[in-house]
Amino acid sequence: MSEKKSKAAHHAGQQEDEEEATAAVCMESDLKDGEMMDVDVGDHNVLLVRCDGEYTAIGNQCTHYGAPLSTGVLVGHRVRCPWHGACFNVKTGDMEEYPAMDSLTCHKVKILDRNVYVTVNKKALGQAKRVKKMGARDPDVNHTVILLGGGCASVICAEILRQENYGGRIIMVTRDDLLPYDKTRLSKVMNVKSDSILLRRMEFYQKYDIEVWLKKEALSIDTDRKTVAFDDGTTESYDQLLVATGCRAKELDSPGAELKNVLMLETPEDANHIHNACIGCRTVIVGTSFVGMEVASYMIDKASSITIIGFSELPYLKTLGREIGKFTMTVLEERGVKFYMNDSVTEVRGKNGRVKEVVLKSGTIVEADVLLVGIGIVPNSEFLKGSGIKMDSKNYVTVDKYMRTNVRDVYCAGDLTCFPLQMIKDQSVSVAHWQTAQAQGRIAALNMLGKQVALNTVPFYWTVLLGQTIRYAGYGEGYTDLVLKGRFEDMKFLAFYIKDDEVVAAAGLNVEPAVSAVAERFAAGKVITKAEAESDDLSWLKLPTSKQ
């Protein structure tokens, strides 16, 4: 706690009763409008904000992964998390942007003799997360929404429907044998226990009358009759339908790909299998985007050797770009990872049914005990053929800014979509990021209810290499220039991606909350010019200064 806070608390003391704890946390003059700081009330850490001349207090830990919001970005009534870009209303505590799913608890604030007092409810101390008020099924409402897919888009869609007091039947159908879970964790913590990454537990779905059908897959949709046929021979009728079946890992098309220990990462079970299979073994990874690079990073101190095979010149070429791709490659090479770039697998050779060698197009032969394939994704849209639902040339479902397909009452959200991204003048794109899928699930739900709310989200994602997190906001595909602040070799940088003399995306390492600050600019529709990015004065980012 700061010296000012300590003096104020010492001066006024701390008052407690059976249900509440109150502390004087600072002087009224300590914060100006648009400033925030963390304060302690007993053992509880609180975010104190001054906005429009008024003090408010909410929980300080982001409900996503627990980041301290006091080190984030405050714009108006909204604070954005410095780690993964989630946003919360500082007056209500309500979550306003994903990837967080829950809201924050609000605390009472009063001013007395120029001291600011914060009161927390002791019962809420162990409940930092707050679920928004939700309705339940109304048996008198004869209406059914079916959500195909067990990812975050379907979960968010279901929750928003109930938050908006939809009283009809909600059926979420997934081919998985597990409730929806946080898939972003799989390549970062590969020995993860599936129970620890569930987005919601079964009790939650039961409480709010959300039916979850596991191990069931849609085979076809009859959009005229409004029915879905499933692989168990059953058919279900819908009034409105969300298609959110996502994408699957692309398989290796080479002789020997069927051998044991040729592995792909899609489920927690896969992650655990890869973790165990690679320990002390010669591990070869095909693919140099998120899955391949994150698994290599995770396995560095576990596998006996790691070799990465990439189709392109550098890793992350289509996502983080050439400059950061080269940096990440150098970082892993320094830890003993061997790269074969501009190459591909022509054959996988085995012995006794298990991988032993990987033959490359260049003629190189790499010894291997495990081969992990991470070469891209394929949309799970085969079952839509003949439905009349429009897809693009790559079989992604085309939607408008309301997540509507060309077929009435059929919506689509998540990795399967090709959608108009507002921040790039509604250009249609496919963005396979967790937070974007969540935002789309919300928009689909609101428009099912006739709210006419358009998608307006800034893509935000992150990747972890050797315990270091690179954060990214925006849409940088097709960038023509890169402005770098800091140095790669110092493991601290902020990169601005430039197109048509404007910043279209930013990536950063150890510069929190800079990427979140850029995301806020994008979200507000404000242009960041190349000149601003090149300037030595980054005050336009309005990065917070620590209150001492």
Task: Please report the total strand number as a whole number.
Answer: 39
> Main sheet?
7 strands, antiparallel
Shape: globular
- What is the assembly state of the chains in this entry? single chain
Distance between the termini: 8 Å
| Overall average pLDDT | 93
Spatial ordering of strands, largest sheet? 1-2-12-11-5-4-3
Query: What percent strand?
Result: 25-35%
How many H/I helices? 9
How much is the radius of gyration in Å? 25 Å
The residue fraction in helices comes out at: 10-25%
Gist of the model:
Helix content is 17%, strand content 34%. The chain is of the alpha+beta class and 548 residues long.
Keywords, please?
single chain, 548 residues, alpha+beta, five-stranded parallel β-sheet, 9 helices, 17% helix, disordered N terminus
Outline the structure in words.
This protein is an alpha+beta fold. Helices cover about 15% and strands about 35% of the residues. The chain contains 9 helices and 39 strands. The chain has a 7-stranded antiparallel beta sheet with strand order 1-2-12-11-5-4-3. A hairpin with a 2-residue loop joins strand 3 and strand 4. The longest helix is centred in the last third of the chain and has 15 residues, at about 435-450. The radius of gyration is 25 Å and the shape is globular. The termini are close together. Residues about 1-15 have low confidence and may be disordered.
